[in-house]
Specification:
By secondary structure, this protein is of the alpha+beta class. The protein has two domains: 50 residues; 72 residues, 2-Layer Sandwich (GMP Synthetase, Chain A, domain 3), CATH 3.30.300. A three-stranded mixed β-sheet has the order 1-2-3. The radius of gyration is 15 Å and the shape is elongated.
Length: 142
């Protein structure tokens, strides 16, 4: 069976953050060829303008969110989310503590995803930032 496809969301919001942090220039952003994924993030990395670590550090600093260690995701926590939902929102459940589930995401601003995940898990959601590649790799592994 083919796995569900992640919803297409725009990540153009990261551009101004990266420009403000001096990671890229407006001219570099304007000249990007966006890949089939539609992600600016992927285009920036493919063009060699920055890397996942720099994008993650910039977003984490700007939005005051923790950096996810997707490799350390708790398999039990990952099972709290149906695969279709995890792929739809492009997230991985990392772990649980108390009434909160820690979720790796590329967009910690996605309130719709936060609300749906909270409803499905019956827990508060705490987003952590991770790269699209790390999330995809972990989803494929689970």
């Amino acid at each position: 069976m083919t796995p569900p496809v992640a919803k297409r969301t725009s990540d153009t919001w990261i551009g101004p953050y990266l420009v403000a942090a001096g990671v890229v220039t407006d001219a570099q952003l304007a000249g990007l060829r966006v890949p089939e994924s539609g992600r600016i993030w992927d285009a920036l990395v493919a063009a060699g303008l920055t890397d996942d670590a720099q994008i993650i550090a910039t977003i984490a600093d700007r939005l005051k969110v923790p950096v996810a260690d997707v490799a350390q995701a708790d398999a039990r926590a990952a099972k709290i989310l149906p695969e279709a939902t995890a792929r739809k929102h492009h997230v991985v459940a990392l772990g649980m503590f108390g009434t909160t589930v820690r979720i790796a995401t590329t967009d910690p601003r996605d309130m719709g995803a936060e609300q749906e995940l909270a409803f499905l898990t019956g827990r508060d959601v705490s987003f952590e930032i991770a790269s699209p590649r790390a999330i995809t790799d972990k989803l494929d592994e689970l």
